[in-house]
Amino acid sequence: MEHPNLIACHECDLLFRKPPRLGGLVARCTRCGAGLKGMHRVGLPLEGICALTVAALITFVIAQVFPVIELETNGMTSQTTLFGAVQSLWGGHMRLVAIMVLGSSVLFPLTELLAFLYVLVPVRMGRRPPHFNHMLRLIQFVRPWGMIEVFMLGVLITIVKMVSIAQVIPGTGLFAFGALMVILAAISAFDPGMLWEVCDEMTIRRPAGVHRSSVNDRRVGLARASNLPEVAATGYVTARHAGLVACHTCGLIQTGSAHQRCSRCDSLLHARRPDSVTRTLSLLVAAALVYIPANLLPIMHASSLGRSEDDTILAGVAYFWTSGDWPLAVVIFVASVMVPMLKLATLALLTLTARRGSDWQPHERATLYRVVERVGRWSMLDVFVVALTVALVHFGTFAFITAGPGALAFGAVVILTMLASHQFDPRLIWDNARCQQQQLHDIESEQVRSSVASINRNQQHYL
After folding, report:
1. Helix, strand, coil % (nearest 5) of the chain?
2. CA angle 426, 430, 431 (to 5 degrees)
3. What's the pLDDT score for residue 435?
């Protein structure tokens, strides 16, 4: 049985009555403060998102075709595109690093844009496209792995680094990437989960003489507090303790059990992510082991006039600091040294407390989880700098740079920590939390405290 008038917070599992429209506002959970996903907002219309997607695809092609940077020194020139950087890594036997750069800066952003266009155009015309479920799930999967903004920061750092050895000429591709970054930022503000609701509305057939608002009001309800032993301690009603399951893909609230499939998107249902703690800890151990060689091994080999020099990440930080570019030194140190280390420590804290069923500081732990999710991708900065530097500095026997094993180890740290954060289920933070009861405004009204059985009866009567 589906409950389309209810929504559960994806971070703490708290149940809410879903408002019909948000008027451009962002709905946030009153328990953990997370933004609620998959809800209608009066923002940029579907026509605007379609136009931005087409513009992004055109800009994407320009950014890939034209050179990003050109170097000129002693009558010799060198230029590169993003594909040229990938080819240089591939030819230098750093194929795994080349795949990382290609995926995060080319394949994943392009896949998101094409899938978005495939879904948005038919939906705007009032029909559901074939394979709608698969395409929307694909968008949600690839979105966190596109890193155009990180690549742009890597380009700027590479420019500053190359100024000391050659004249740097910005290429057309650089400006195209800048425009693409802005357009993608606007597109990423659009929640693709809202399209599930849009398609549902296209298929709804309302009974004659019955207004949607009246149906919504009578179908809203949660299990009574007296029937839920944990509600008295926490002051909240979660989907799990109301006997409901929230689909992790489309957010639909429904009755069901683990290993069943969602009636809307056909994803496997689970009250909590299976083996979340075990998988997260395994990935963290692997990332911690790789983190040591990532900092000790050289990330680049530089050769100039017969002299060779190996650069580690910390050596690069020291270079920018001593040359007077201390803001860039701070950026690289934070993104490449502090962020991975703090991410490992934070995820270890979250998984160990979840494994013990701790109720210690749930709000603070939830905030740490969101910070880890948002800043982890920026650790790819050094990998992009290496890719661009290797592609640019090829002046025959005069000077050339190749990637070192540290680049592979560092890229592995970034991928493993991102996978670990995606495997961790933030709802585990709140499962044993003992929070003081707070006023939930109209959400905790007597109407919302009606039983789940009442929801089912009303749904059968009005639908």
Report:
1. 55, 10, 35
2. 105
3. 45
